[in-house]
Amino acid sequence: MGPRLSLEEKRKRMMDIFHEMPEPFLLKELERIGPKQKGIVSQSVKDVVQSLVDDGMCHCEKVGTSNFFWAFPSEAAVKRKNKMMQLEKELAQMQAKQKELADLIANAQLGREHTEERGYLLEEMMETEALWNRQQEELKQFKECDPVLMNRKREEAVMAKDAANRWTDNVFIIQSWVRDKFNMDMGEFNKFFGIPAEFDSV
Fold this sequence. Notes:
Blueprint: H1 7-20, E1 25-26, H2 27-38, H3 42-54, E2 59-63, E3 66-70, H4 73-109, H5 116-144, H6 147-182, H7 186-192
Antiparallel strand pairs: 1-3, 2-3
Helix pairs in contact: 1-2, 1-3, 2-3, 4-5
């Protein structure tokens, strides 16, 4: 049995099912696919899918007596793009507000001692800066989910895997050559060159 999955990990894996197979599913189909392909126990599939529906990440449509569930990859990309645009707009507003407050504080400091108004403006500016920083962090998280970047990372992972397997094949070729040339046992070869017993292609 594998490690227990958190609800968030189950939700992510369920969304992977929808995106990898962009078609409507019956709940019983998801209860069969979830454990087999993504390690989601069948008893929790219904709650996981319902949480995705409640959050607007998955569609549910009743056809006859059956409920069909789906979520297409293009929809997720559009939602992320819209969310990023909204955050960027809010950040721009926060920056403008921050500049306005900074200008007011600068004007209030000219030839004046500390005043109640200046203290209020300082406090408001600090709150605005904190909000702006939180918005930046949230925007950064959405940018990390950018589909173009994720596809690039997948391609790099495939290239790295292929390269590793080529080196593994080279080691096997050398093993065979040494075995035939010097009549050396493979166990002795692995021990001499520090190759673990479980060494194999990835």
